[in-house]
C-alpha cells in the first residue's frame, strides 16, 4: 500500500520535470545520450532534488517580478499652495504609472485660462506638468484716500494695503487692510479709513485782551490777539509778545499751539533825559512798550553808550540811557561804525588805545578788508574810521515754497546743518518731507517739498467748470441752433424739407432741400 503513493510522487516529479523548460533545454543539449547514462534516469525523469529546486526558482522569479511591478508607482503628489486634489484622489497613497489626477483651485485662487487641472504619473515616476495652473485672485483697488496716501504694490490674494495721512492730518480707522477670501471670492478685510485734520484745543484766553473765535481750531488755524481799550483816564494796554499763534504739531503729531499767547499789560517807561544831549526822535510825552528814543550829544561832548533805546515790558529802557561826556585831550568814546562791531567794546578809551572794527557778514570796508585797526588820538577822534559797505545778500540758501511757509527754524541765511519745518497753506497738500536740513551750496536734504492743491479743491474746480461749460453750451444751442420746420413727400416721391433757423441777429432764413 505504501508503494503506491511513492509511485504517484515520483510520477508528479517526473511530470514536473517533463513540463519544465529547463528540462526541455537539458534534453535538447544532451540529446539521445541521456538514456545511455545508466540507471536512475529515464527519458522523463529528473536527477534527484532537481524538481524542488526548479519550483523554488520559479517562486523567487514570480516574487521579484511582483516587487518590480510594485515599485512602478508614483508617490502622492506634493502639496500645492494654490490647489488641492479632488476628493476621489485625496485618500490614495499609491498611483500606478499613467494615473491622471484632478485638482481644484484653493479658495483665493482661480484657474489660469488654457491650463489643465490634471497631472499625470509619468514613466519616470514624476508628476507632470509642473507649471502652475491656478493664480491668485485679485481684490479691487481700495480707492483714493483724501488728504492721504494709499501704499499698495499688489492686489492679489494675501497682499496688504497701507494708509498714511499728509502732514496735519491723522488717520481714523485701520491703517492696514488685507485681501482675504470672502464668500468664495476675495475682498478687503476692512474699509477705507479717512484722514481728518488734526485739531487743537481752543486757544488760551488772556487778561485784558481777546481773539476772534472761529467754529473749529484745526491744523494751520491762526488766531491773532488784541488788547481791550483801557478805561477812560487810565494808561492803555500794550500787547507784549507775539500777536499771532497757529495750530501746529508736536513730536507725537498732536495738535498744539505754536507758542504761548501774548499778554495785555500796562507798560510805562519814564521820560528819558540825557544831560548835555538831546532827543533826535521819540518825543513822548508817554512811552509804552516798544517805543524808542534816539539821542545825540551837544557839541563838545561825546556819547558813551547806545544812541537808540527802547521801552521794554518791565518798564525799563534797553539798552540803558547813554551819557554825554565832555571831550578831553586824552579820551575817546567808542567809535561809531555802521554794519559792523567794535572789539573790544567799552564806554571810553584812553589816548593811544587801539580797537578792531569788524564788518558784519557780507559786508566789507571800501578796500575789501573785513577788519581794520583804529587808534584813539584824543578829543574823541579815531584814526582812519571807515564804515562797512554791504553787498546785496543773496538768499540762495532760503528755500522757495509756493503756497507754504516755514514754521520752525526760519533764518535770513542758513548754515550747514540748519533744519527747518515746512507746512502748506489751507487747501494745499504737502508733497515731500516737512522737515529738511541744509547741506550747503543751496542744497537741502531731502529736497524742498512742494505744495499742491488738495484733491477736493481740484474736484470742486472741475465740477464748477463742467457746470459753466454746460450752461454756456446750452445757451449757444438755444440761441443759435434751435430749429423749426417741416418735411413732406409728394406723389412723385419728391422730398421737401423746410427749416427755420434762429440766429443771434434774430434773422430768419428758410432753406429748401430737394
Automatic annotation (TrEMBL):
Transmembrane parts of this sequence: 49-66, 453-477
Gene3D superfamilies: Complement Module, domain 1
Positions of the Sushi domain: 72-136, 137-197, 198-266, 267-326, 388-453
UniProt cross-references to InterPro entries, sorted A to Z: Compl-Cell_Adhes-Reg, Sushi/SCR/CCP_sf, Sushi_SCR_CCP_dom
Disulfide bridge partners, by residue number: 297-324, 424-451
Source organism, top-level taxon: Eukaryota
Keywords assigned by UniProt, alphabetized: Disulfide bond, Glycoprotein, Membrane, Repeat, Signal, Sushi, Transmembrane, Transmembrane helix
Cited Pfam families: Sushi
Protein name (Swiss-Prot/TrEMBL): Complement component 4 binding protein alpha
Organism whose genome encodes this protein: Anas platyrhynchos
Amino acid at each position: 500500500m505504501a508503494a503506491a503513493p511513492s509511485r504517484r510522487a515520483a510520477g508528479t516529479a517526473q511530470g514536473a520535470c517533463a513540463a519544465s523548460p529547463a528540462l526541455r533545454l537539458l534534453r535538447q543539449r544532451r540529446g539521445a545520450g541521456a538514456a545511455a547514462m545508466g540507471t536512475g534516469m529515464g527519458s522523463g525523469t529528473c536527477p534527484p532534488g532537481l524538481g524542488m529546486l526548479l519550483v523554488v526558482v520559479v517562486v523567487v522569479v514570480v516574487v521579484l517580478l511582483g516587487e518590480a511591478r510594485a515599485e512602478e508607482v508614483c508617490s502622492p503628489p506634493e502639496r500645492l499652495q494654490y490647489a488641492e486634489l479632488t476628493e476621489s484622489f485625496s485618500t490614495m497613497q499609491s498611483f500606478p504609472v499613467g494615473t491622471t489626477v484632478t485638482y481644484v483651485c484653493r479658495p483665493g485662487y482661480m484657474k489660469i485660462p488654457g491650463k489643465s487641472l490634471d497631472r499625470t504619473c509619468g514613466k519616470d515616476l514624476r508628476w507632470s506638468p509642473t507649471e502652475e495652473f491656478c493664480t491668485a485672485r485679485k481684490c479691487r483697488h481700495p480707492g483714493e484716500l483724501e488728504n492721504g496716501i494709499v501704499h499698495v504694490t499688489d492686489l492679489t490674494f494675501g497682499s496688504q494695503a497701507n494708509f498714511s495721512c499728509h502732514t496735519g492730518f491723522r488717520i481714523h480707522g485701520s491703517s492696514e487692510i488685507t485681501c482675504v477670501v470672502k464668500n468664495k471670492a476675495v475682498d478687503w478685510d476692512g474699509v477705507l479709513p479717512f484722514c481728518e485734520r488734526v485739531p487743537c484745543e481752543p486757544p488760551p484766553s488772556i487778561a485784558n485782551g481777546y481773539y476772534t473765535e472761529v467754529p473749529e481750531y484745526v491744523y494751520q488755524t491762526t488766531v491773532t490777539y488784541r488788547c481791550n481799550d483801557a478805561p477812560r483816564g487810565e494808561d492803555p494796554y500794550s500787547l507784549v509778545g507775539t500777536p499771532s499763534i497757529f495750530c501746529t504739531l508736536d513730536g507725537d503729531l498732536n495738535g498744539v499751539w505754536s507758542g504761548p499767547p501774548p499778554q495785555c499789560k500796562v507798560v510805562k517807561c519814564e521820560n528819558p533825559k540825557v544831560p548835555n544831549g538831546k532827543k533826535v526822535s521819540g518825543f513822548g510825552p508817554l512811552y509804552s512798550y516798544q517805543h524808542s528814543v534816539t539821542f545825540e550829544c551837544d557839541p563838545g561832548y561825546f556819547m558813551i553808550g547806545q544812541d537808540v533805546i527802547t521801552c521794554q515790558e518791565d518798564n525799563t529802557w534797553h539798552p540803558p540811557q547813554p551819557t554825554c561826556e565832555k571831550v578831553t585831550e586824552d579820551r575817546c568814546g567808542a567809535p561809531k561804525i555802521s554794519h559792523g562791531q567794535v572789539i573790544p567794546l567799552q564806554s571810553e578809551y584812553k589816548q593811544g588805545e587801539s580797537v578792531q572794527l569788524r564788518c558784519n557778514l557780507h559786508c566789507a570796508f571800501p578796500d575789501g578788508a573785513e577788519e581794520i585797526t583804529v587808534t584813539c588820538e584824543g578829543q574823541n577822534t579815531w584814526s582812519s574810521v571807515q564804515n562797512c559797505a554791504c553787498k546785496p545778500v543773496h538768499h540762495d540758501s532760503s528755500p522757495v515754497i509756493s503756497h507754504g511757509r516755514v514754521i520752525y527754524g526760519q533764518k535770513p541765511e542758513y548754515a550747514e546743518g540748519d533744519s527747518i519745518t515746512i507746512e502748506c497753506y489751507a487747501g494745499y497738500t504737502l508733497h515731500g518731507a516737512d522737515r529738511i536740513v541744509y547741506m550747503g551750496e543751496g542744497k537741502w536734504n531731502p529736497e524742498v517739498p512742494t505744495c499742491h492743491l488738495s484733491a477736493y479743491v481740484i474736484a470742486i474746480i472741475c465740477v464748477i467748470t463742467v457746470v459753466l461749460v454746460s450752461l454756456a453750451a446750452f445757451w449757444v444751442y438755444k440761441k443759435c441752433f434751435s430749429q423749426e420746420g417741416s418735411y413732406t413727400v409728394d406723389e412723385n416721391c419728391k422730398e421737401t424739407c423746410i427749416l427755420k433757423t434762429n440766429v443771434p441777429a434774430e434773422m430768419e432764413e428758410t432753406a429748401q432741400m430737394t
